[in-house]
Specification:
Among the domains are: about 10-45, CD2-Gal4, CATH 4.10.240; about 340-400; about 425-580, no CATH class. The protein has 22 helices and two strands. The protein has helices at about 15-20, 35-40, 60-85, 120, 135-145, 155-165, 175-190, 200-220, 225-240, 250-265, 280-310, 315-325, 340-365, 370-390, 390-395, 405-420, 430-450, 460-480, 490-510, 515-525, 540-555, 560-575, and strands at about 90-95, 110. Strands 1-2 form a two-stranded antiparallel ribbon. It starts with 16 loop residues before the first helix and ends in an 8-residue tail after the last helix.
Amino acid sequence: MPKGSPVSTAPPSIACMRCRRRKKKCDRRHPRCGECQRSSAECIRFQERKPRDVATVPWCYVQDLETRLAQVKKELALCKGMLAQVHPHSSQVVSKDEQSPASNTVVIVSPTEDIPSDDALSSPVERQPDDLGHLKANDLSNYFQYVHPSWPFLDQAQLSQWFHDYTSQGVSLEDYQLYFIHLVCAIGACYSSPSDRQCPHVSRSRELYTDALHIYLADAVSEEHKFRTKAYLLLIVYAFHCLTPFQLHDTTNEAILEITERLSTFQIPSTFLPLDFDDIDEATVAEDKDNRVLLIYCYTAFEIIASLWNRSFQVLVGSLDDKILDQGIWLTFGGGSMPADLEHMFAIRRIQSKVRRLWSQFIAFPEQEETRRRQTAEIRAELEQWKAMIPLVSSTVDGSMSYHPLAMLKTYDYSICSLYQHETIVLSVEDYSVLLSAASENSRCFRRIQKFFMIYSTWGGLLEQFSIGVILLSCFWGTPLLCRTAAFQAPDALQALEDCQQTLTGFAQKWEAAEIYLEAYTLLFSHTPIYACKETVPSEDFRPRMESIICELENRGVTMAILTLMRRMLSLSEESTDFLL
């Protein structure tokens, strides 16, 4: 048995922590060196472990974990039941005892004799999803896989239970419950295949939406405030995914007005009262938290529509915009824990609202250029602080891609582009450099995420990437060759141009209505001076075709800022390229 090393009385060879930090000469005496002795300070040896108090976990945190675990178990049981209903006779799993000892896999066989007869399929006691019109369990699953992670304002366990009771047990549901089932399946049907061209799920989605809108919506909006707000918010989420965007005029406007009213009339929760107020119970705290989380997603939808949809938004709800920004500060305060990633994403939505307010004030008072530049610098500082927090609050484990580090970085870059680019100003060379960096990073992040996930297959994602592509091209048009930095010819910037074109190509393959965005970007890209200053003679039909495309994009709701950039590039393409020197 080896002998232990003898206890050494010699001083340690490394200075104490205080002397190391203060860059003082340490005599390494034990238990306290000379410097610490003279200063009456605690002397801590290098890599010395000190006894600490036992860490405690709040009981409410433990209860929250137990509640979430019970919910996960319940959802797992419901998923197993739904899978068994979708394929009750299609597969048969061999038990573990019947498997070969050398095999660790599950053997699946599909005997044709297990297929039920027509009488069994039409039995009124056990109804199958296929017998319920357009309702499909696969559409419900698609919604929870691709849409719900970014918009988790519905109770997945409750909605799955409703679907299970209605499709399998033949339970009669209320109309408001059928509204949510039909509209959720209508959205999930949009993810049935990578392309929506001549696919059966397209008509199925439209039929489900029509039934939800004309049969069940009236009952859904007559429910209590929580269900009413969820019903309208789900309608806006459908508008992000449907095949004909910007054509749901009346219903979408009604939904926008509803969530705008809820946001503008939000009251300070009762949980903001003093902590010694005894009348606040846990149920009130939980209700206030759920209500604030729901309104945060309403605020997110509101901001997406305001920044991406040019549908006379200011005329519709402009008078309430400032009030919503002022009231929104209360959504992240009060009792109950709020996920850090959700709070962080809500914070940048509020910053985006400040950007819109900045440009609205500048349009009203265009002579206040110095004020605009000062406020721009202040908002830029807020964005930089927000960006610095991304490594601390982002998540690669959660199913929601909105909280992925690349997704958060993409949102930051788009906010920078919104802050520096507007149709009322002429950008400087420094501004174009900022836009080039932000836009190229946004395009690369989007491409990397979308390559593995379908989470951004929305019209909002298409409009964002089209806007980013136009901003990228405008940087090359607005910066003379002698003023261009190495970033213009860097691989990241050139790769971003290709990534944007590939992204728009993917959207065009999915939606026929998206082809015009790809055509517009491709035409502008082919005439952009990327590498060298040389005469580029546009074809005869280039200008008339681009003018026609710009008019069509204006009718489709593309923002005036992007349309102005396109018109500037179209005008410059017909002039001599000497202006680039």
